[in-house]
Design brief:
Layout: H1 3-12, E1 40-42, E2 54-55, E3 63-70, E4 74-80, E5 89-92, E6 98-106, E7 118-122, E8 129-131, E9 144-154, E10 159-164, E11 173-182, H2 185-196, E12 203-207, H3 226-229, E13 236-245, E14 248-249, E15 259-260, H4 277-294, H5 299-309, E16 313-319, H6 336-339, E17 344-346, E18 352-356, H7 361-377, E19 382-386, H8 398-408, H9 420-448, E20 453-458, H10 478-483, E21 489-493, H11 498-507, E22 510-514, H12 525-533, E23 538-541, H13 544-547, H14 551-557, H15 563-567, H16 569-572, E24 578-584, E25 587-588, H17 589-598
Parallel strand pairs: 2-3, 12-13, 12-23, 13-16, 14-15, 16-19, 19-20, 20-21, 21-22, 22-23
Antiparallel strand pairs: 1-11, 3-4, 3-24, 4-11, 5-10, 6-9, 6-11, 7-8, 7-10, 9-24, 13-14, 17-18, 24-25
Helix pairs in contact: 7-9, 8-9
């Protein structure tokens, strides 16, 4: 959008001084109800402190106060476009006792300013909740406030703290009101009892390790707590946080051949703001890692400490696919392949693949060194080998050819690709690797005087992986690993494997399911309920950092261990509402929005 259009749009949002505190509605018996006569709306957002943080006119560093009216509520909202670095706000709530807490967010689609994202917390909280609400269905005669359910809590002496996403990855925000619904004493007792039990905690929340930095600014290392604090009153049992992507780490590393993203970020040579959202996210990640390191902080160390204080387990994930750069990034002679150029994979016809092979001791030992280094810093309860970010692990490299020739007196390149003998040779290398990792966990556990768990993220035994055949065809003999007692849990993607489950019951290896990304397998209350019916008891969610900021999926994910709720989620879900605005500034939305906005510029 051009700047003349921006000025036109901002001029539409003229300010009138109509400020209200406005209760209304019916039936506030549950989180999903409409307002009742007891409902309180704090709809005059100019009560936010400091008063210097907002103004009645457009400024480059403050929120803009805009009067509005809807059928149930009217007041003055505070708005800041993405390019304004608006300061933190604190809204006094001025209520006592337990209430359901909601926030009303306006998203003016006609401003062409991207998605809304913001951070909110109660003044007594140690971290913010990050929110990325879905866009509203605005059109030429309508625009909406979206009501987002936040939580139930004792709000005595609390205030609501609001932060806009600023900086390189800045996003717009417009906060219209805070809604407060008193909670009856018997419901408060039920909430407290539910929070006191741990029986429903069965979710592994997986954090990418970089992606979360694309979604908003991280100006302080302690901002990492935002990723963990959200799990306090939820069914999350364990946090699984990635530490590497092949030879790239998201912490300062001294392992030869490894590269720290804070020093070798892919966008370190780009311009100040970059060309698109992805580049800006990469810039934010690179700068955050760099600044964390300068402060002597590692995100996983901060996160693990906070998770443990909350009674949660914390594991670290290792992405095993070590890739070259195919010319996309100039690493100036650094990285794994600069040190071990001979460890690349090779196809049957001799084509070199720019990816490391686990047939080489150097590759295996490199990842073991990363594990040892990470565990020397992070107080982790376990490690996870992520094979779904890995295949192929090995193909026709010299060690594979030599072992096949030694065993079968043939050239492996001349046999069928599905020859079981070739599969067995590949499995032998990966079994040796898993045994090394298992020995490492036992060694470190002995040093610490407490167990160190080992898990793998794989596919069901009969399912083809992204790049090829079944896990065993790719050298991953998960059943053997379970039988040997090497694994404490196996996280399986996109399918229930009854054989894994049965073997795990014999050896104490837990079965954890991630139902999938898309289509009928996409993680949902329905697929979770079906998995319960198939004997699954624990779940994982890939890239939870991308989903937990979205109010609707987080509302059910946080309750995933409550089977009765999953089976009838439409009854239990705390609905968000869309409130059509009748007036914004001096503009009648139904009659004047199209003339004021869509026909201008």
């Amino acid at each position: 959008m051009s700047m003349p259009n921006a000025r036109v749009i901002l001029s539409v949002l003229m300010l009138f001084s109509s400020l209200f505190l406005f209760p209304s509605g019916v039936d506030a018996a549950s989180p999903s109800s409409l307002p009742s006569d007891a409902t309180i709306f704090r709809s005059d957002m100019t009560h936010c402190l400091p008063t210097a943080a907002h103004a009645e006119t457009n400024r480059v560093d403050t929120w803009r106060a805009i009067p509005y009216a809807a059928k149930e509520v009217r007041g003055t909202l505070l708005y800041a476009p993405s390019f304004v670095n608006a300061p933190e706000l604190t809204l006094p709530i001025d209520v006592s006792g337990w209430h359901h807490l909601r926030i009303g967010i306006w998203q003016p689609a006609f401003a062409y300013d991207g998605d809304t994202r913001l951070r909110v917390k109660l003044s007594g909280d140690s971290a913010f909740r990050r929110l990325h609400p879905p866009r509203t269905a605005d059109n030429q005669k309508s625009t909406y406030i979206r009501e987002v359910y936040l939580r139930a809590d004792d709000l005595t002496d609390q205030a609501l703290v609001i932060r806009k996403m600023n900086g390189i990855v800045g996003r717009n925000a417009a906060v219209a009101y805070v809604r407060l619904d008193p909670i009856p004493a018997d419901e408060v007792a039920r909430i407290k009892a539910d929070r006191a039990q741990n029986d429903t905690r069965n979710l592994v929340a997986t954090i990418d390790g970089v992606t979360y930095l694309h979604y908003g600014e991280y100006s302080e290392p302690t901002d990492v707590l935002d990723q963990i604090e959200l799990y306090r009153h939820s069914d999350v049992a364990k946090v699984l946080w990635a530490v590497n992507y092949g030879d790239r780490t998201n912490y300062p590393t001294t392992v030869p051949g490894a590269l720290f993203l804070g020093a070798h970020g892919r966008t370190r040579h780009t311009t100040e703001f970059g060309s698109n959202d992805y580049v800006r996210g990469e810039q934010q990640a690179h700068r955050a890692f760099r600044d964390f390191a300068a402060a002597g902080q590692v995100p996983q160390v901060i996160a693990a400490k906070h998770a443990h204080e909350m009674g949660l387990e914390f594991d670290v994930m290792f992405r095993l696919g070590i890739l070259g750069d195919l010319g996309f990034v100039d690493l100036e002679g650094e990285g794994f392949f600069a040190r071990y150029p001979h460890c690349r994979q090779v196809l049957a016809d001799g084509t070199i693949v720019d990816k490391a092979s686990y047939a080489f001791d150097e590759t295996q030992d490199f990842t073991l060194a990363l594990m040892r280094e990470t565990l020397s810093m992070v107080d982790a309860d376990g490690i996870n080998l992520c094979f779904v970010r890995g295949p192929h692990a090995l193909q026709y490299e010299a060690p594979v050819l030599e072992r096949f020739l030694e065993r079968h007196h043939e050239d492996a390149r001349k046999v069928a690709t599905d020859d079981p003998r070739l599969q067995a040779v590949r499995i032998s290398f990966m079994n040796e690797y898993l045994e090394k990792v298992h020995r490492l966990t036992e060694e470190i556990a002995a040093q610490r005087g407490r167990p160190l768990n080992l898990s793998v993220w794989v596919w069901p035994g009969t399912q083809g992986v992204w790049l090829g055949g079944t896990p065993e065809a790719e050298g991953l003999d998960v059943k053997h690993w379970i039988k040997q007692g090497w694994l404490d849990s196996v996280i399986v993607q996109e399918g229930v494997d009854e054989e894994y489950i049965a073997l795990g019951k014999e050896t104490g290896c837990d079965y954890v399911l991630f139902t999938g990304y898309r289509g009928e397998k996409a993680m949902s209350p329905a697929t979770v309920t079906a998995a319960y019916g198939a004997g699954v008891k624990q779940f994982a969610y890939w890239d939870m950092d991308a989903v937990q900021i979205m109010p609707d999926p987080w509302n059910w994910l946080r309750r995933i261990g409550h089977r009765e709720e999953m089976a009838d989620w439409e009854t239990y879900k705390p609905d968000g509402r869309l409130l059509p605005l009748e007036q914004v500034g001096h503009v009648n939305v139904a009659r004047g929005l199209v003339d004021a906005v869509y026909s201008g510029g």
